[in-house]
Design a protein that fits this description.
With 114 residues, the protein is of the alpha+beta class. The chain is built from 3 helices and 7 strands. Helices cover 18% and strands 37% of the residues.
Length: 114
């Protein structure tokens, strides 16, 4: 059940310079990764990828700063939900990861894992 909620209920939508994790259950975007935040791109193949003729796309990015602020939080401040923060992404079992890499515009940092 947890695997389905993590991988089965999301779609990765790639636009020019933007990757959006879209929930098919909620019908809304849940996370994003902008081209400017991508620090590394790797395409890997594990046993399951070889079995199903797919690849895993790893997009490295500097995650958000999680250092706690000193003092008490402001009770009137909006809670940070993290949806608009860039985070690293692993896109498992993708048939054509190069299409995502090209659309996102990060082919210049692509590395292939043998």
């Amino acid at each position: 059940m947890a695997r389905y909620l993590t991988y089965g209920a999301v779609e990765y939508r790639c636009y020019d310079g933007l990757l959006v994790v879209h929930s098919t259950l909620l019908g809304a975007g849940q996370a994003r990764l902008r081209r400017q935040a991508v620090e590394g791109v790797t395409i890997e193949r594990d046993f399951a990828d070889r079995l199903f003729d797919t690849e895993t796309l790893v997009l490295d990015a500097e995650g958000p700063d999680t250092t706690p602020e000193p003092g008490l939080p402001d009770p009137e401040a909006e809670p940070a939900d993290g949806v608009d923060e860039d985070r690293p992404r692993n896109l498992a079992h993708v048939r054509e990861p190069e299409v995502i890499v090209d659309t996102l515009g990060v082919a210049w940092v692509l590395e292939r894992d043998g």
